[in-house]
Specification:
- Helices cover 55% and strands 0% of the residues.
- With 286 residues, the chain is mostly helical.
- α4 packs parallel to α6.
- The longest helix has 29 residues.
Length: 286
């Protein structure tokens, strides 16, 4: 038995491949940012010079307040719940099924990004290349946890939101990411590479989730169609000059007919003479 499986449109595969390629590029860019900015002498020298300048400036109360709000655990948990709730309450463009899987995907983007950042910050080494100036910390700060929270929550909201709202939320989301990243730099909490790496990690999970969401669904199992039994022809009374009619049923009395007189039988004449010339005597009185 051969089952026909419809192939997805080429544009769907092209868009899926583009998203997967974007996720791979973002992940590669995050790795290259760490290698160049942390593992090389030039990278450390440039970033530490900027870090020394920010630590000598006057503290920014507004920046510190924003970072304290972003790093609050209750706020992070509430943001994850809000992303999931958006997917549960909204419906697709046809008004049919709820977009629960988009809410789950957006929540996963934020949660995995934050977990990945915390893991990398604890495990990635920062070598001592003897380029540290006065006031430069030696511990590793790559990637930025606060920037990851801002970027991952923003990306999760965009993914969970209906398509119409994604374009509207994009500008405020990018603005919030930029404000949080700048706050970590001006307060001396992080270097520039820390914020760039954090944003790239969140973008990697966003594009990876979008890739999985665009994959074509597997075809539903189909039941083989057996050939239908032939339908017996329906007999309708025919009309017209070529119509055929069933033979009429003989009446029972037709089987006991009275023999015809001999002069009325075939082969005789009216005088009682047969066709062979033999005279037959008739007795009409009998």
């Amino acid at each position: 038995m051969t089952t026909y499986v419809p192939q997805p449109h080429r544009r769907t595969w092209a868009a899926t491949a583009a998203l997967a390629l974007g996720a791979l590029l973002c992940a590669s860019a995050a790795v290259m940012t760490y290698v160049v900015a942390v593992q090389t002498y030039t990278g450390q020298a440039l970033e530490n010079q900027g870090l020394n300048i920010t630590t000598e400036t006057v503290p920014h109360p507004s920046a510190l307040a924003l970072l304290g709000l972003v790093g609050s655990p209750p706020l992070i948990i509430g943001a994850l719940a809000a992303i999931l709730l958006i997917g549960v309450l909204t419906r697709d463009h046809t008004g049919g099924r709820r977009r629960v899987r988009y809410g789950v995907a957006g929540t996963a983007v934020a949660a995995l990004s934050i977990a990945t950042t915390e893991l990398l910050k604890q495990t990635l080494p920062r070598p001592d290349l003897d380029v540290y100036g006065s006031g430069s910390p030696l511990h590793n700060s790559f990637p930025s946890g606060h920037t990851t929270v801002a970027a991952s929550v923003a990306f999760g909201l965009i993914l969970a939101a209906p398509p119409f709202w994604r374009g509207i939320l994009a500008a405020p989301a990018l603005l919030a990411i930029g404000l949080v990243a700048a706050s970590t730099i001006v307060t001396g909490w992080h270097r520039v590479s820390d914020t760039v790496g954090a944003t790239l990690i969140a973008a990697t999970y966003l594009l990876l989730a979008a890739t999985l969401m665009r994959l074509p669904k597997p075809p539903a199992p189909t039941t083989p169609h057996l050939p239908a039994a032939p339908t017996p022809p329906t007999t309708h009374p025919a009309t017209g000059p070529h119509a055929t009619h069933p033979p009429a049923t003989e009446h029972p009395t037709q089987h006991h007919r009275t023999p015809a007189p001999i002069w009325a039988r075939p082969g005789t004449t009216s005088a009682g003479t047969t066709s062979t010339g033999t005279t037959v005597a008739t007795h009409p009185g009998r």
